[in-house]
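Question (not urgent): is this output format expected?
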Amino acid sequence: MGTVKTQKSKLWGSLLTGGLVIFSMTAFGQTSKTVKGEILDMSCYMTHDAQGKGHKTCAQGCLDKGLPAGILSKDDGQVYLLVEDHKLSDAYKEAVKHAAENVEITGKVVKKNGVQSLIVEKVKVSG
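Got this back:
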């Protein structure tokens, strides 16, 4: 065991480190969120506002080719670019199987240089 002074220093160091980690996650927009909404094919959505069940076949084809995916939030109309977490790649792969369908995606929201994204951690099909 160390001295009381050493133990206090370690405690303060740990608290400061933990605080900095939390601050950096918040400051850089990495807050966890669940977004309910429609999976979008971002190429067609951005070029000609294509969305909905009538666009499902085209959207799924685009996502199957590896084009970018997004989610249109039912709650606030915000669009998030979906991003794969390399440690949880199965979650992203599941998300892109559901073009033009309503799902719930949980992940970290990251805003960087004007782009709003959701790093996919968990997917639940709304049905």
